[in-house]
Amino acid sequence: MDKFIIEGGANLKGRIKIAGAKNGSLALMPATLLASGTYHLKNTPNLRDVWTMSRLMGELGAFCELNGNDLFIDTTKADKTIAPYEQVKKMRASFYVLGPLLARWGEAKVSLPGGCAWGPRPVDLHLKGMKKLGAEISVENGYVIAKAKSPNGKLKGGHIHLDVSSVGASGNILMAATLAEGITTITNAALEPEITALGRFLQDMGAKISGLGTSTIEIEGVDELHPADVTTIPDRIEAATYLIAAAMTGGHIELQNVNPYHLAAVIDKLEESGCELDINSDTISLKMDKSPKPTNVTTAIYPGFPTDVQAQWMSYMMLANGSSHVVDNIYYDRFKHAPELSRLGADVDVVDNAAIVTGGKALSGATVMSSDLRASASLVLAGLAAKGETEVLRIYHLDRGYEAMEEKLTKLGANIQRLKTELI
Ligand code: UD1
Question: What is the DSSP letter of 263?
Fold first, then answer.
Protein backbone atom coordinates (compact mmCIF):
# COMPACT_ATOMS: atom_id res chain seq x y z
CA MET A 1 0.00 0.00 0.00
CA ASP A 2 1.38 3.37 -1.02
CA LYS A 3 2.05 6.09 1.51
CA PHE A 4 2.88 9.78 1.43
CA ILE A 5 5.89 11.28 3.17
CA ILE A 6 5.39 14.99 3.77
CA GLU A 7 7.96 17.45 5.09
CA GLY A 8 5.74 20.21 6.46
CA GLY A 9 6.27 23.94 6.49
CA ALA A 10 6.35 24.98 2.82
CA ASN A 11 4.02 27.85 1.85
CA LEU A 12 1.93 26.71 -1.10
CA LYS A 13 2.26 29.08 -4.05
CA GLY A 14 1.30 28.89 -7.70
CA ARG A 15 -1.48 27.79 -9.98
CA ILE A 16 -3.16 24.42 -10.58
CA LYS A 17 -6.06 23.11 -12.63
CA ILE A 18 -8.94 21.44 -10.82
CA ALA A 19 -10.15 18.11 -12.23
CA GLY A 20 -13.65 17.12 -13.25
CA ALA A 21 -15.96 16.18 -10.39
CA LYS A 22 -15.63 12.61 -9.14
CA ASN A 23 -19.25 12.60 -7.98
CA GLY A 24 -20.27 14.11 -11.31
CA SER A 25 -18.61 11.36 -13.37
CA LEU A 26 -19.93 8.57 -11.14
CA ALA A 27 -23.48 9.68 -11.99
CA LEU A 28 -22.88 10.39 -15.70
CA MET A 29 -21.25 7.03 -16.42
CA PRO A 30 -24.21 4.78 -15.45
CA ALA A 31 -26.58 7.12 -17.32
CA THR A 32 -24.99 5.88 -20.57
CA LEU A 33 -26.59 2.47 -19.86
CA LEU A 34 -29.95 4.06 -20.71
CA ALA A 35 -29.26 4.18 -24.47
CA SER A 36 -27.18 1.99 -26.75
CA GLY A 37 -24.29 3.71 -28.53
CA THR A 38 -21.04 5.59 -28.07
CA TYR A 39 -20.33 8.48 -25.72
CA HIS A 40 -17.49 10.90 -25.04
CA LEU A 41 -17.31 12.15 -21.43
CA LYS A 42 -14.81 15.02 -21.38
CA ASN A 43 -13.02 16.36 -18.31
CA THR A 44 -13.39 12.98 -16.55
CA PRO A 45 -11.07 12.74 -13.54
CA ASN A 46 -8.54 9.96 -13.90
CA LEU A 47 -8.92 8.32 -10.51
CA ARG A 48 -9.65 5.05 -8.78
CA ASP A 49 -13.43 5.44 -8.36
CA VAL A 50 -13.79 6.11 -12.08
CA TRP A 51 -11.75 2.97 -12.82
CA THR A 52 -14.02 1.02 -10.45
CA MET A 53 -17.14 2.27 -12.21
CA SER A 54 -15.52 1.41 -15.58
CA ARG A 55 -14.94 -2.15 -14.39
CA LEU A 56 -18.53 -2.44 -13.20
CA MET A 57 -19.77 -1.10 -16.53
CA GLY A 58 -17.57 -3.76 -18.14
CA GLU A 59 -19.40 -6.47 -16.15
CA LEU A 60 -22.63 -5.10 -17.65
CA GLY A 61 -21.25 -5.44 -21.18
CA ALA A 62 -20.19 -1.82 -21.76
CA PHE A 63 -16.74 -0.85 -22.98
CA CYS A 64 -15.01 2.07 -21.22
CA GLU A 65 -11.70 3.57 -22.26
CA LEU A 66 -10.15 6.41 -20.28
CA ASN A 67 -7.55 8.29 -22.27
CA GLY A 68 -6.16 11.09 -20.09
CA ASN A 69 -9.33 12.91 -19.10
CA ASP A 70 -11.37 11.71 -22.08
CA LEU A 71 -13.65 8.82 -21.26
CA PHE A 72 -15.12 6.92 -24.20
CA ILE A 73 -18.00 4.57 -23.43
CA ASP A 74 -19.62 2.13 -25.83
CA THR A 75 -22.86 0.63 -24.54
CA THR A 76 -23.80 -1.13 -27.80
CA LYS A 77 -23.30 -4.56 -26.22
CA ALA A 78 -24.35 -3.61 -22.67
CA ASP A 79 -27.23 -6.03 -22.16
CA LYS A 80 -26.38 -7.60 -18.80
CA THR A 81 -28.34 -6.71 -15.69
CA ILE A 82 -26.33 -8.15 -12.79
CA ALA A 83 -24.01 -5.88 -10.79
CA PRO A 84 -21.84 -8.27 -8.75
CA TYR A 85 -20.78 -7.81 -5.14
CA GLU A 86 -17.07 -7.88 -6.07
CA GLN A 87 -17.41 -4.54 -7.87
CA VAL A 88 -20.22 -2.90 -5.88
CA LYS A 89 -18.53 -3.45 -2.50
CA LYS A 90 -15.61 -1.23 -3.58
CA MET A 91 -17.73 1.87 -3.97
CA ARG A 92 -21.25 2.86 -2.92
CA ALA A 93 -21.82 4.91 -6.06
CA SER A 94 -21.98 1.57 -7.93
CA PHE A 95 -25.58 1.43 -6.75
CA TYR A 96 -26.31 4.10 -9.39
CA VAL A 97 -26.60 1.33 -12.01
CA LEU A 98 -29.88 0.12 -10.47
CA GLY A 99 -32.09 2.87 -11.96
CA PRO A 100 -30.75 2.73 -15.54
CA LEU A 101 -30.77 -1.10 -15.68
CA LEU A 102 -34.30 -1.37 -14.34
CA ALA A 103 -35.60 1.36 -16.66
CA ARG A 104 -33.95 -0.07 -19.76
CA TRP A 105 -34.40 -3.82 -19.26
CA GLY A 106 -37.27 -4.05 -16.76
CA GLU A 107 -35.08 -5.96 -14.30
CA ALA A 108 -31.84 -5.68 -12.38
CA LYS A 109 -29.90 -7.57 -9.73
CA VAL A 110 -27.54 -5.25 -7.88
CA SER A 111 -25.48 -6.13 -4.84
CA LEU A 112 -26.18 -4.08 -1.72
CA PRO A 113 -23.21 -1.78 -1.20
CA GLY A 114 -22.73 -2.53 2.50
CA GLY A 115 -21.48 -0.18 5.19
CA CYS A 116 -18.94 2.56 5.08
CA ALA A 117 -15.84 3.26 7.17
CA TRP A 118 -17.69 5.95 9.10
CA GLY A 119 -21.02 4.23 9.68
CA PRO A 120 -24.23 3.03 8.06
CA ARG A 121 -25.29 4.50 4.73
CA PRO A 122 -28.70 3.05 3.84
CA VAL A 123 -30.25 2.74 0.36
CA ASP A 124 -33.88 2.61 1.54
CA LEU A 125 -34.79 5.79 -0.35
CA HIS A 126 -33.43 4.41 -3.63
CA LEU A 127 -35.59 1.32 -3.16
CA LYS A 128 -38.66 3.29 -2.08
CA GLY A 129 -38.29 5.31 -5.27
CA MET A 130 -38.05 2.25 -7.51
CA LYS A 131 -41.15 0.76 -5.82
CA LYS A 132 -43.08 3.97 -6.47
CA LEU A 133 -42.07 3.63 -10.12
CA GLY A 134 -43.77 0.23 -10.24
CA ALA A 135 -40.91 -2.13 -9.42
CA GLU A 136 -41.14 -5.22 -7.23
CA ILE A 137 -38.15 -5.30 -4.92
CA SER A 138 -36.75 -8.14 -2.87
CA VAL A 139 -33.42 -8.68 -1.17
CA GLU A 140 -31.86 -12.12 -1.55
CA ASN A 141 -28.34 -13.20 -0.60
CA GLY A 142 -27.16 -9.62 -0.31
CA TYR A 143 -28.57 -8.60 -3.68
CA VAL A 144 -31.43 -6.26 -4.49
CA ILE A 145 -33.63 -7.96 -7.07
CA ALA A 146 -35.80 -5.46 -8.89
CA LYS A 147 -38.39 -6.16 -11.56
CA ALA A 148 -40.91 -3.93 -13.28
CA LYS A 149 -44.39 -5.23 -12.38
CA SER A 150 -45.96 -4.10 -15.63
CA PRO A 151 -46.24 -6.91 -18.29
CA ASN A 152 -44.44 -4.72 -20.86
CA GLY A 153 -41.45 -4.42 -18.52
CA LYS A 154 -41.80 -0.64 -18.28
CA LEU A 155 -41.66 1.42 -15.12
CA LYS A 156 -44.58 3.77 -14.42
CA GLY A 157 -44.34 7.42 -13.42
CA GLY A 158 -45.25 8.34 -9.83
CA HIS A 159 -44.74 10.88 -7.05
CA ILE A 160 -41.74 10.25 -4.88
CA HIS A 161 -41.10 12.35 -1.80
CA LEU A 162 -37.64 11.85 -0.35
CA ASP A 163 -37.70 12.07 3.47
CA VAL A 164 -34.03 13.03 3.26
CA SER A 165 -32.72 14.98 0.29
CA SER A 166 -30.41 12.17 -0.84
CA VAL A 167 -27.99 12.77 -3.72
CA GLY A 168 -27.77 9.13 -4.72
CA ALA A 169 -31.51 8.42 -4.47
CA SER A 170 -32.33 11.56 -6.48
CA GLY A 171 -29.89 10.55 -9.23
CA ASN A 172 -31.03 6.94 -9.34
CA ILE A 173 -34.73 7.82 -9.50
CA LEU A 174 -34.10 10.57 -12.05
CA MET A 175 -32.36 8.10 -14.37
CA ALA A 176 -35.04 5.42 -13.89
CA ALA A 177 -37.90 7.86 -14.55
CA THR A 178 -36.55 9.00 -17.94
CA LEU A 179 -37.84 5.80 -19.59
CA ALA A 180 -40.91 5.24 -17.37
CA GLU A 181 -44.42 5.58 -18.78
CA GLY A 182 -46.00 8.87 -17.68
CA ILE A 183 -44.89 11.61 -15.36
CA THR A 184 -42.67 11.30 -12.30
CA THR A 185 -42.29 14.00 -9.69
CA ILE A 186 -39.47 13.93 -7.12
CA THR A 187 -40.00 16.28 -4.18
CA ASN A 188 -37.26 17.18 -1.71
CA ALA A 189 -34.87 16.23 -4.53
CA ALA A 190 -31.15 16.90 -4.12
CA LEU A 191 -29.96 20.34 -5.25
CA GLU A 192 -26.32 19.29 -5.57
CA PRO A 193 -24.68 20.52 -8.82
CA GLU A 194 -23.73 16.95 -9.77
CA ILE A 195 -27.44 16.00 -9.88
CA THR A 196 -28.30 19.07 -11.95
CA ALA A 197 -25.44 18.17 -14.31
CA LEU A 198 -26.74 14.61 -14.56
CA GLY A 199 -30.20 15.97 -15.41
CA ARG A 200 -28.75 18.20 -18.15
CA PHE A 201 -26.89 15.24 -19.64
CA LEU A 202 -30.12 13.21 -19.64
CA GLN A 203 -31.88 16.13 -21.37
CA ASP A 204 -29.15 16.07 -24.04
CA MET A 205 -29.88 12.34 -24.41
CA GLY A 206 -33.52 13.22 -25.13
CA ALA A 207 -35.08 13.07 -21.64
CA LYS A 208 -37.89 15.47 -20.75
CA ILE A 209 -37.02 16.97 -17.38
CA SER A 210 -38.00 20.22 -15.68
CA GLY A 211 -37.15 21.75 -12.32
CA LEU A 212 -33.44 20.84 -12.31
CA GLY A 213 -31.59 22.69 -9.56
CA THR A 214 -34.81 22.98 -7.52
CA SER A 215 -36.22 20.60 -4.94
CA THR A 216 -39.06 19.51 -7.24
CA ILE A 217 -37.98 17.70 -10.38
CA GLU A 218 -40.53 16.55 -12.94
CA ILE A 219 -39.74 13.92 -15.54
CA GLU A 220 -41.97 12.97 -18.45
CA GLY A 221 -40.93 9.51 -19.58
CA VAL A 222 -39.97 8.94 -23.21
CA ASP A 223 -39.82 5.71 -25.26
CA GLU A 224 -36.11 5.87 -25.82
CA LEU A 225 -33.02 8.00 -25.34
CA HIS A 226 -29.97 8.48 -27.56
CA PRO A 227 -26.24 8.95 -26.84
CA ALA A 228 -24.78 12.42 -26.22
CA ASP A 229 -21.41 13.87 -25.27
CA VAL A 230 -20.83 15.78 -22.06
CA THR A 231 -18.19 17.77 -20.18
CA THR A 232 -17.97 16.95 -16.47
CA ILE A 233 -18.34 19.91 -14.11
CA PRO A 234 -15.33 20.91 -11.96
CA ASP A 235 -14.77 19.09 -8.67
CA ARG A 236 -15.88 21.49 -5.94
CA ILE A 237 -14.55 19.22 -3.18
CA GLU A 238 -11.08 18.96 -4.72
CA ALA A 239 -11.09 22.75 -5.12
CA ALA A 240 -12.11 23.29 -1.48
CA THR A 241 -9.34 20.93 -0.34
CA TYR A 242 -6.61 22.92 -2.15
CA LEU A 243 -8.02 26.26 -0.95
CA ILE A 244 -7.81 25.01 2.64
CA ALA A 245 -4.30 23.63 1.99
CA ALA A 246 -3.18 27.12 0.90
CA ALA A 247 -4.91 28.74 3.88
CA MET A 248 -3.12 26.32 6.23
CA THR A 249 0.34 26.99 4.84
CA GLY A 250 0.31 30.79 4.58
CA GLY A 251 -0.01 30.29 0.86
CA HIS A 252 -1.08 32.18 -2.22
CA ILE A 253 -2.58 30.01 -4.96
CA GLU A 254 -4.86 30.23 -7.96
CA LEU A 255 -7.22 27.44 -8.95
CA GLN A 256 -8.27 27.16 -12.58
CA ASN A 257 -11.28 25.29 -14.01
CA VAL A 258 -13.51 25.89 -10.99
CA ASN A 259 -17.11 27.02 -10.62
CA PRO A 260 -17.04 29.51 -7.71
CA TYR A 261 -20.82 29.47 -7.56
CA HIS A 262 -20.66 25.81 -6.44
CA LEU A 263 -18.26 26.77 -3.65
CA ALA A 264 -20.16 29.70 -2.12
CA ALA A 265 -20.48 28.20 1.38
CA VAL A 266 -16.80 27.24 1.54
CA ILE A 267 -15.67 30.63 0.19
CA ASP A 268 -17.83 32.38 2.79
CA LYS A 269 -16.22 30.40 5.63
CA LEU A 270 -12.69 30.91 4.28
CA GLU A 271 -13.31 34.67 4.22
CA GLU A 272 -14.74 34.55 7.74
CA SER A 273 -11.55 32.79 8.88
CA GLY A 274 -9.41 35.63 7.50
CA CYS A 275 -8.39 34.52 3.99
CA GLU A 276 -8.30 36.99 1.09
CA LEU A 277 -10.04 35.62 -1.97
CA ASP A 278 -10.23 36.88 -5.51
CA ILE A 279 -13.02 35.27 -7.50
CA ASN A 280 -13.57 35.27 -11.26
CA SER A 281 -15.87 33.28 -13.50
CA ASP A 282 -13.71 30.12 -13.50
CA THR A 283 -10.76 30.89 -11.25
CA ILE A 284 -10.32 31.45 -7.52
CA SER A 285 -7.21 32.91 -5.87
CA LEU A 286 -6.59 32.63 -2.15
CA LYS A 287 -4.01 34.39 -0.03
CA MET A 288 -3.45 33.87 3.68
CA ASP A 289 -0.65 35.33 5.77
CA LYS A 290 -1.83 34.88 9.37
CA SER A 291 -3.39 32.33 11.72
CA PRO A 292 -7.04 31.70 10.97
CA LYS A 293 -9.79 32.99 13.21
CA PRO A 294 -11.76 30.20 14.91
CA THR A 295 -14.66 29.59 12.52
CA ASN A 296 -17.55 27.21 13.15
CA VAL A 297 -19.06 25.10 10.38
CA THR A 298 -22.18 22.93 10.24
CA THR A 299 -22.55 20.66 7.24
CA ALA A 300 -25.80 20.73 5.30
CA ILE A 301 -27.21 19.72 1.96
CA TYR A 302 -26.23 21.95 -0.98
CA PRO A 303 -25.84 24.94 -1.04
CA GLY A 304 -24.75 24.50 2.59
CA PHE A 305 -21.26 23.59 3.76
CA PRO A 306 -20.45 20.14 2.27
CA THR A 307 -19.92 17.13 4.52
CA ASP A 308 -17.13 16.17 2.12
CA VAL A 309 -15.13 19.20 3.36
CA GLN A 310 -15.81 18.69 7.08
CA ALA A 311 -12.59 16.74 7.77
CA GLN A 312 -10.40 19.26 5.92
CA TRP A 313 -12.01 22.11 7.87
CA MET A 314 -11.31 20.36 11.16
CA SER A 315 -7.67 20.12 10.15
CA TYR A 316 -7.63 23.86 9.32
CA MET A 317 -9.15 24.84 12.65
CA MET A 318 -6.28 23.13 14.48
CA LEU A 319 -4.29 26.23 13.50
CA ALA A 320 -6.81 28.77 14.84
CA ASN A 321 -6.18 30.50 18.15
CA GLY A 322 -9.24 29.35 20.07
CA SER A 323 -12.09 26.86 19.83
CA SER A 324 -14.27 26.10 16.83
CA HIS A 325 -17.22 23.78 16.43
CA VAL A 326 -17.38 21.43 13.46
CA VAL A 327 -20.81 19.81 13.26
CA ASP A 328 -21.81 17.15 10.71
CA ASN A 329 -25.56 17.04 10.11
CA ILE A 330 -25.33 14.72 7.10
CA TYR A 331 -23.23 11.86 8.50
CA TYR A 332 -23.33 11.78 12.28
CA ASP A 333 -20.38 9.37 12.66
CA ARG A 334 -17.99 10.87 10.15
CA PHE A 335 -15.13 11.65 12.55
CA LYS A 336 -12.56 8.88 12.04
CA HIS A 337 -9.96 11.54 11.27
CA ALA A 338 -10.23 13.16 14.74
CA PRO A 339 -8.02 10.66 16.63
CA GLU A 340 -5.49 10.62 13.79
CA LEU A 341 -5.32 14.42 13.74
CA SER A 342 -4.70 14.28 17.49
CA ARG A 343 -1.47 12.39 16.72
CA LEU A 344 -0.11 15.61 15.22
CA GLY A 345 -0.93 17.53 18.38
CA ALA A 346 -4.52 18.61 17.82
CA ASP A 347 -6.97 18.97 20.64
CA VAL A 348 -10.25 17.59 19.27
CA ASP A 349 -13.22 16.44 21.35
CA VAL A 350 -16.03 14.66 19.57
CA VAL A 351 -19.45 14.48 21.21
CA ASP A 352 -22.20 12.93 19.09
CA ASN A 353 -22.03 14.68 15.70
CA ALA A 354 -20.03 17.68 16.87
CA ALA A 355 -16.30 18.19 17.24
CA ILE A 356 -14.79 20.96 19.33
CA VAL A 357 -11.39 21.82 17.96
CA THR A 358 -9.13 23.80 20.26
CA GLY A 359 -6.39 25.10 18.04
CA GLY A 360 -3.30 27.17 18.32
CA LYS A 361 -0.80 24.52 19.46
CA ALA A 362 2.12 23.84 17.16
CA LEU A 363 1.53 20.71 15.09
CA SER A 364 4.34 18.20 14.80
CA GLY A 365 4.72 15.51 12.15
CA ALA A 366 3.67 11.93 12.95
CA THR A 367 2.66 8.69 11.29
CA VAL A 368 -1.07 8.65 10.61
CA MET A 369 -3.49 6.23 9.03
CA SER A 370 -6.09 7.06 6.37
CA SER A 371 -9.53 5.67 7.07
CA ASP A 372 -11.56 7.09 4.20
CA LEU A 373 -11.24 9.48 1.30
CA ARG A 374 -11.84 12.89 2.88
CA ALA A 375 -10.30 11.88 6.22
CA SER A 376 -7.11 11.13 4.29
CA ALA A 377 -7.20 14.59 2.73
CA SER A 378 -7.43 16.16 6.19
CA LEU A 379 -4.32 14.24 7.27
CA VAL A 380 -2.35 15.42 4.24
CA LEU A 381 -3.35 19.04 4.96
CA ALA A 382 -2.28 18.69 8.60
CA GLY A 383 1.03 17.18 7.45
CA LEU A 384 1.65 20.15 5.14
CA ALA A 385 1.20 22.55 8.07
CA ALA A 386 3.04 20.50 10.72
CA LYS A 387 6.67 20.85 11.69
CA GLY A 388 8.79 17.91 10.56
CA GLU A 389 7.88 14.73 8.74
CA THR A 390 4.42 13.19 8.47
CA GLU A 391 3.77 9.75 7.01
CA VAL A 392 0.23 9.23 5.72
CA LEU A 393 -0.41 5.50 5.36
CA ARG A 394 -3.00 3.76 3.14
CA ILE A 395 -3.36 6.55 0.63
CA TYR A 396 -5.33 4.30 -1.70
CA HIS A 397 -8.30 6.02 -0.05
CA LEU A 398 -7.02 9.35 -1.42
CA ASP A 399 -6.47 7.89 -4.86
CA ARG A 400 -10.22 7.16 -5.00
CA GLY A 401 -11.02 10.84 -5.29
CA TYR A 402 -7.95 13.04 -5.92
CA GLU A 403 -6.27 12.99 -9.31
CA ALA A 404 -2.46 13.16 -8.99
CA MET A 405 -2.58 14.86 -5.60
CA GLU A 406 1.16 14.71 -4.94
CA GLU A 407 1.90 16.16 -8.38
CA LYS A 408 -0.44 19.10 -7.82
CA LEU A 409 0.93 19.75 -4.33
CA THR A 410 4.52 19.49 -5.60
CA LYS A 411 3.68 22.03 -8.31
CA LEU A 412 2.54 24.35 -5.51
CA GLY A 413 5.87 23.89 -3.71
CA ALA A 414 5.00 21.22 -1.13
CA ASN A 415 7.56 18.63 -0.08
CA ILE A 416 5.58 15.46 -0.60
CA GLN A 417 6.45 12.11 -2.09
CA ARG A 418 4.68 8.84 -2.69
CA LEU A 419 6.42 5.70 -1.61
CA LYS A 420 5.27 2.73 -3.62
CA THR A 421 4.35 -0.56 -2.00
CA GLU A 422 7.58 -2.30 -2.98
CA LEU A 423 9.67 0.43 -1.31
CA ILE A 424 7.86 0.21 2.04
C1 UD1 B 1 -23.19 11.54 -2.07
C2 UD1 B 1 -21.74 11.74 -2.42
C3 UD1 B 1 -20.87 11.80 -1.17
C4 UD1 B 1 -21.42 12.85 -0.20
C5 UD1 B 1 -22.91 12.66 0.05
C6 UD1 B 1 -23.53 13.78 0.86
C7 UD1 B 1 -21.59 10.65 -4.57
C8 UD1 B 1 -21.07 9.51 -5.36
N9 UD1 B 1 -21.32 10.64 -3.27
O10 UD1 B 1 -23.27 10.28 -1.41
O11 UD1 B 1 -19.54 12.13 -1.55
O12 UD1 B 1 -20.74 12.75 1.03
O13 UD1 B 1 -23.61 12.60 -1.22
O14 UD1 B 1 -23.34 14.99 0.22
O15 UD1 B 1 -22.19 11.56 -5.10
N16 UD1 B 1 -29.83 8.38 3.19
C17 UD1 B 1 -30.86 7.58 3.67
N18 UD1 B 1 -31.40 6.65 2.85
C19 UD1 B 1 -30.95 6.48 1.56
C20 UD1 B 1 -29.92 7.30 1.08
C21 UD1 B 1 -29.37 8.25 1.93
O22 UD1 B 1 -31.25 7.70 4.83
O23 UD1 B 1 -31.49 5.62 0.85
C24 UD1 B 1 -29.24 9.42 4.08
C25 UD1 B 1 -27.76 9.14 4.36
O26 UD1 B 1 -27.59 8.24 5.44
C27 UD1 B 1 -27.25 10.54 4.68
C28 UD1 B 1 -28.11 11.43 3.78
O29 UD1 B 1 -29.22 10.64 3.38
O30 UD1 B 1 -27.51 10.88 6.03
C31 UD1 B 1 -27.38 11.92 2.55
O32 UD1 B 1 -26.84 10.83 1.85
P33 UD1 B 1 -26.78 10.82 0.25
O34 UD1 B 1 -27.03 12.22 -0.22
O35 UD1 B 1 -27.65 9.74 -0.26
O36 UD1 B 1 -25.28 10.43 -0.02
P37 UD1 B 1 -24.71 9.59 -1.23
O38 UD1 B 1 -25.52 9.81 -2.45
O39 UD1 B 1 -24.45 8.19 -0.80
Answer: G
